[in-house]
């Protein structure tokens, strides 16, 4: 891990240096999403449902130190969240921060009860510690822009208006928006919208952006050099942007190229302090650095942390030491914001 620029430029083949278990998982996930994406712009949901392993909630007894339950926000659009509450100790804390988490998957795949994301949020809840709200937002292409952003903001409104939806120790005035990949994109846009909302209790004070999914019409140096990398090759991301963005839009739409020609001016907003994680084997890294730079130029607090030898979504693989480092850094970031 480093906080400075890389001295050497890896290529797509460098991901072969990762542990075999990680390489197999990445390869299978890449092939699964490729097989599910149809040329006509739709997704084979039946195939995905067969291969996307799910985890049940554990409301009655803690599992790995955390109890979970599923809370419905709006049944008509299947908007719900999985609530993760760490088990109290002999001296329970007076309060815990709330982390509202948005899962990755290119706006098109996965869910809070997908095995990997259930494990990730359980670990965040235990290690920070925090009350974690993992949002089940609508997926594209069936539900494109701006449905995902609408769902995210509506969950914040729900938490603001329904105090009984969270345990008593949940401090809604210390709310952190978090996400990885497309989820980090959603977290950003929900943060912008939240700045304009008259919340009574919910106050977003921090944003945890893990390898956010941004893009544009330009082909950046890292996208070209790392073409063929798992999960986020140009071919895959082009398909995902087309499935998500309004018909006829280019990738310079404000949803994708947040600091580009159609950027929303956030200089006057009370945007939360942000930490951005970047992987040196992630084709999206140039867009992620630009995002961090744009936040700073907009007068916002933004910290960049780089992992030069890590691929997109590396932190979901617990066998990687860098994964545990990221969780520790997220814990430190949350603790630093009172």
Task: Walk me through what this model shows.
The protein has helices at 20-36, 45-51, 115-127, 147-161, 182-194, 221-225, 234-244, 285-297, 321-336; strands at 66-74, 79-86, 96-102, 131-136, 170-180, 204-210, 273-279, 302-307. With 338 residues, the chain is of the alpha/beta class. The protein has an eight-stranded mixed sheet with strand order 1-2-4-3-5-6-7-8, with helices on both faces. Helix 1 (20-36) runs antiparallel to helix 2 and helix 4 (147-161) packs across helix 5 (182-194). The two termini are 26 Å apart.
List the helices and strands and how they pair.
Elements: H1 20-36, H2 45-51, E1 66-74, E2 79-86, E3 96-102, H3 115-127, E4 131-136, H4 147-161, E5 170-180, H5 182-194, E6 204-210, H6 221-225, H7 234-244, E7 273-279, H8 285-297, E8 302-307, H9 321-336
Parallel strand pairs: 3-4, 3-5, 5-6, 6-7, 7-8
Antiparallel strand pairs: 1-2, 2-4
Helix pairs in contact: 1-2, 4-5
- Reading the helices and strands in chain order gives HHEEEHEHEHEHHEHEH
Structural class: alpha/beta
Strand content: 15-25%
Order of strands across the main sheet: 1-2-4-3-5-6-7-8
Number of beta-strand segments = 8
Distance, first to last CA: 26 Å
* Contiguous uncertain segments of 5+ residues: 1-7
Average pLDDT confidence is 94
- Rg calculated over all Cα atoms: 19 Å
Shape: globular
Q: Which bin fits the share of residues in helices?
A: 25-40%
**Number of alpha- plus pi-helical segments:** 9
Question: Largest beta sheet, briefly?
Answer: 8 strands, mixed
């Amino acid at each position: 891990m480093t906080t400075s620029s890389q001295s050497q430029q890896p290529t797509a083949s460098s991901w072969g240096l990762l542990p075999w278990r990680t390489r197999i998982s990445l390869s299978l996930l890449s092939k699964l999403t490729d097989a599910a994406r149809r040329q006509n712009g739709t997704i084979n949901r039946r195939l995905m449902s067969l291969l996307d392993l799910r985890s049940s909630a554990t409301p009655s007894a803690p599992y790995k130190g955390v109890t979970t339950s599923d809370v419905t926000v709006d049944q008509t659009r299947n908007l719900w969240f999985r609530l993760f509450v760490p088990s109290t100790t002999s001296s329970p804390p007076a309060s815990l921060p709330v982390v509202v988490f948005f899962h990755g998957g290119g706006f098109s795949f996965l869910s809070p009860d997908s095995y990997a994301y259930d494990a990730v949020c359980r670990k965040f809840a235990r290690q920070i510690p925090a009350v974690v709200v993992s949002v089940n937002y609508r997926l594209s292409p069936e539900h494109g822009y701006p449905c995902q952003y609408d769902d995210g903001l509506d969950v914040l409104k729900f938490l603001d208006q329904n105090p009984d939806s969270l345990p008593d120790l949940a401090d809604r005035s210390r709310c952190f928006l978090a996400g990885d990949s497309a989820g980090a994109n959603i977290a950003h846009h929900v943060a912008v919208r939240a700045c304009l909302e008259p919340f009574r209790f919910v106050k977003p004070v921090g944003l945890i952006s893990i390898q956010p999914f941004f893009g544009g019409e330009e082909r950046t140096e890292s996208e070209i050099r790392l073409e063929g990398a798992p999960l986020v090759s140009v071919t895959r991301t082009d398909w995902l942007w087309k499935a998500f963005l309004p018909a006829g839009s280019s990738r310079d739409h404000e949803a994708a190229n947040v600091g580009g020609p159609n950027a929303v001016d956030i200089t006057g907003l009370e945007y939360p302090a942000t930490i951005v994680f970047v992987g040196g084997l992630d084709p999206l890294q140039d867009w992620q650095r630009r995002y961090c730079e744009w936040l700073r130029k907009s007068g916002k607090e933004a910290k960049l942390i780089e992992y030069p030898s890590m691929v997109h979504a590396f932190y979901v693989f617990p066998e990687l030491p860098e994964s545990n480092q990221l969780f520790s850094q997220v814990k430190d970031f949350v603790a630093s914001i009172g």
